[in-house]
Inverse folding.
């Protein structure tokens, strides 16, 4: 038996027996946010709430799954309205979230969908200005999530948005929603194509299955930490 490994125990390597079966990996899903509350729907700059430290903005065209992602991410059934009437989605909806009891709050901000070809031009112009006011404001977000349906190719709107966020110096992550709608190779190639167009690797998310939620939680936490905003690590 002693011929099988270092019998002298030098270097403390005895523990790494290659035959020992690994314990089964059963990662426990992260709990829902401890608190998640609607704050305000803003139609103009003057209605934006006081900043609370960190803010993450969700951007994406209508019907891409923004409200569903928000509900799944925060662990709420119906905080944001799924399939909401367009009226409310023309506003910027602010939510205040506390992930764990005692932790600093953050804002999660649901922006009106962009790229509605059917809307009157004046209206398109007015929400474009509202979104610009929001993103450019000093108080603005520290992370943008660009959501897009994984089955759709990257459209000029997404490309313009990504370029513009780059210009603003606002870090963004592309989230490919409705990932449950594709499987195997089609999902992989779709994600790769989106990544080639917009840069980086999109995060595959499904509000139906919860796929991608842990990755989303981790990346937002990482970004919050990088931005210097108070968060989980701050017990002071
Ligand atoms: N299969 C599937 N359907 C989804 C998913 N996310 C959203 N949907 C559906 O897509 C439609 C639009 O979703 P919604 O969240 O209202 O999109 P929003 O307009 O971007 O806020 C609804 O019918 C949702 O049920 C998903 O992850 N998987
Ligand atoms: Mg919505």
């Amino acid at each position: 038996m002693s011929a099988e490994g270092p019998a002298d125990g030098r270097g403390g390597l005895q523990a790494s027996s290659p035959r020992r079966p690994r314990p089964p990996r059963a990662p426990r899903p992260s709990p829902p946010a401890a608190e998640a509350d609607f704050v305000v729907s803003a139609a103009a700059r003057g209605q934006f709430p006081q900043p609370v430290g960190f803010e993450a903005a969700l951007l994406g065209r209508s019907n891409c799954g923004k409200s569903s992602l928000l509900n799944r991410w925060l662990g709420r059934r119906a905080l944001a309205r799924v399939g909401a009437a367009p009226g409310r989605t023309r506003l910027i909806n602010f939510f205040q979230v506390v992930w764990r009891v005692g932790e600093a709050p953050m804002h999660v901000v649901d922006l009106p969908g962009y790229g509605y070809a059917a809307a009157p031009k004046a209206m398109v112009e007015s929400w474009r200005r509202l979104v610009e006011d929001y993103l450019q404001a000093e108080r603005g977000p520290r992370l943008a999530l660009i959501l897009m349906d994984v089955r759709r190719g990257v459209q000029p709107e997404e490309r313009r948005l990504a370029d513009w966020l780059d210009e603003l110096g606002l870090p963004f992550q592309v989230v490919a929603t409705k990932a449950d709608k594709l499987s195997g190779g089609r999902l992989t190639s779709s994600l790769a194509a989106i990544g080639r167009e917009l840069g980086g690797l999109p995060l595959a998310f499904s509000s139906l299955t919860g796929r991608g939620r842990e990755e989303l939680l981790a990346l937002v936490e990482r970004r919050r930490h990088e931005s210097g905003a108070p968060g989980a690590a701050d017990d002071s």
In short: Residues 1-12 have pLDDT under 50 and may be disordered. The domain at 30-226 is CATH 3.40.50.300 (Rossmann fold). The two ends are 54 Å apart (CA to CA).
